[in-house]
């Protein structure tokens, strides 16, 4: 199997505590993958390792088979096309929805370009395309502060997409969303898969079910189970450490 993202035998300790213990994860290009697991399972540390925020003590982490992510920092992984959406929003509330996307667009960021090249037709078309994708076409001119919590999360995803990532790492997107927003977010992430690789960390099992994708269960820093939601939900160990709680 060729994996776009390949982790094998990864270990990481913090002050003697093993947060990641022999973690292996293979994700194909264009795949949508959900990561679940109890608090402290190592989900955030795993994403920190993928993005180069944290270095593993041991193990292999490869991107597109050739690039060694253990030697890359956060800026480097972003340049490689690895985008991360944190739970905490970074939307600038005083700006319109459109301007938030515009600022995030991958453009020539030299001072000259910023001053003189804003809002070219191509720029405006790209903003329109992204706003449709993230279900915010009707909110284009609204101040971002007026958006609902769920809409802000979608805007945040739009801002990430503006950077043209190949892989999106999305941390608990459904937290705090209404049921309707949660289902629409699952739909949005399913739309993005195929043209992007998407890894979603989430606790909301209804949302994970709606993603309709392969699920990896982490526990004590390693993979406890992997497969369809029905497959992992039927695993007694998964029920014991996570689902039964
Ligand atoms: N920088 C750090 N220093 C010390 N311990 C850390 C550090 N980062 C993570 N840990 C520990 O490693 C373990 C795994 O944490 P991690 O945040 O990766 O889990 P998680 O699965 O994301 O949990 P949650 O669902 O609560 O966010 C935890 O016990 C945590 O306390």
UniProtKB/TrEMBL annotation:
Database matches in SMART domains: AAA
GO cellular component entries: plasma membrane
InterPro entries: AAA+_ATPase, ABC_AA/LPS_Transport, ABC_transporter-like_ATP-bd, ABC_transptr_urea_ATP-bd_UrtD, BCA_ABC_TP_C, P-loop_NTPase
CDD domains per record: ABC_Mj1267_LivG_branched
Gene3D superfamilies noted in UniProt: P-loop containing nucleotide triphosphate hydrolases
Residue span, ABC transporter domain: 5-245
GO molecular function: ATP binding; ATP hydrolysis activity
Record's keyword terms, sorted: ATP-binding, Nucleotide-binding, Transport
PANTHER family, sorted: CONSERVED COMPONENT OF ABC TRANSPORTER FOR NATURAL AMINO ACIDS-RELATED (PTHR45772), HIGH-AFFINITY BRANCHED-CHAIN AMINO ACID TRANSPORT ATP-BINDING PROTEIN (PTHR45772:SF8)
Protein name, UniProt field: Urea transport system ATP-binding protein
Species assigned in the record: Pontivivens marinum
